[in-house]
Amino acid sequence: MDKLLLAVKLIITALVLILFVQNIAVVEVRFLTWSLSLPLALLLVAIYLLGMISGKSLMGLIRRLRQGGSESSRR
């Protein structure tokens, strides 16, 4: 099982490296009045990380709201 997990991790790492190598072209990103030029691979990683952070925050908020609702019904 450990060898299978290691193989999966190596395959994912190889795919990420291929993604980086093939997407090094610089793109321009515009948001409201801001403008930024950066490699496409870096933009993809930044968007992925922002999605992970916002997803975790949203799940934490939902968990707190559910716990708060169950506590008020017990009283």
Automatic annotation (TrEMBL):
Residues 22-67 form the Lipopolysaccharide assembly protein A domain. This is Lipopolysaccharide assembly protein LapA domain-containing protein. It comes from Halomonas alkalicola. Keywords: Cell membrane, Membrane, Transmembrane, Transmembrane helix. The chain crosses the membrane at residues 7-25, 31-53. InterPro entries: LapA_dom. It holds the Pfam family LapA_dom.
